[in-house]
Write a structure and sequence with these properties.
With 241 residues, this protein is mainly α. Helices cover 54% and strands 0% of the residues. 27% of the residues are buried.
Length: 241
């Protein structure tokens, strides 16, 4: 019995040093006994003996969603090379760049010229022919234009001015004059002749051949025939395709 008293004394000494031991779950019966005797149990410390210290909750971090894989670049479809379109071999020697096709006064072909206007137009034509013979093509062009304004219904004047325009390397404008000459007179051999030459200078071989052949048919001309033979090789190359 004395041994048990000694152990109790040691236990009481321990309580004096640390009263929080009374809050041990195993001493619940002892706390209740002391309180039944009117005793006061000191408050438990923040972390009472024998009780597990609550673990701090780990701060939850938002779940990081995996980033989607980069989109694959679309593969370029292999394009097959376009087949080469065969084209006839042509001799383009003498072909020139087209002019701007600046419109020249054509006059009013619906208006019939008076005898006086026709006479003045003839004078302008003669002056133009003289300037043309002297190689003064710009001057000749001015006289032909004045003559056309006086007598716009003359197919011959339009064809003559077209020839002057060819000398000035203005085939596009020459074609316009020749077309006007043919509109006035469908049998204008010179209109077809000079239009055919203009097409040849532009490399319009088929049109050139057609107009020059028509000119020779309407009124054979050595120069027109020479120009016709000049375009025939290229026309044959076209025909072989």
């Amino acid at each position: 019995m004395e041994q048990q008293f000694g152990q109790l004394k040691l236990f009481v000494d321990l309580l004096k040093k640390d009263p929080s031991i009374l809050h041990h779950p195993g001493l619940t019966f002892f706390r209740e006994y002391i309180e039944s005797l009117g005793g006061n149990i000191p408050e438990a410390k923040q972390c009472p003996f024998g009780e597990a210290k609550p673990e701090a909750k780990a701060e939850s971090k938002p779940e990081k969603k995996p980033s989607p894989p980069p989109a694959a670049e679309p593969m370029e479809a292999e394009t097959e090379p376009e087949p080469e379109i065969p084209y006839p071999e042509l001799d383009n020697e003498g072909v020139i760049q087209p002019d701007s096709g600046e419109a020249l006064p054509m006059g009013d072909t619906s208006k019939e010229a008076s005898e006086e206007e026709i006479e003045k137009a003839q004078e302008e034509r003669n002056a133009a022919q003289e300037a043309f013979s002297n190689g003064e093509f710009d001057k000749a062009l001015e006289h032909f234009t004045t003559a056309i304004q006086l007598n716009p219904g003359s197919a011959m004047l339009h064809a003559k001015r077209a020839n002057c325009l060819l000398k000035l390397k203005r085939p596009v404008s020459a074609i316009a004059d020749c077309t006007k000459a043919i509109e006035i007179n469908a049998d204008s051999a010179q209109g077809y002749k000079f239009r055919g030459r203009a097409h040849r200078l532009l490399g319009n071989w088929l049109d050139a051949h057609k107009d020059l052949a028509t000119a020779c048919k309407l009124d054979y001309d050595d120069t027109a025939n020479e120009w016709l033979k000049e375009v025939e090789p290229n026309v044959r190359n076209f025909s072989s395709f």
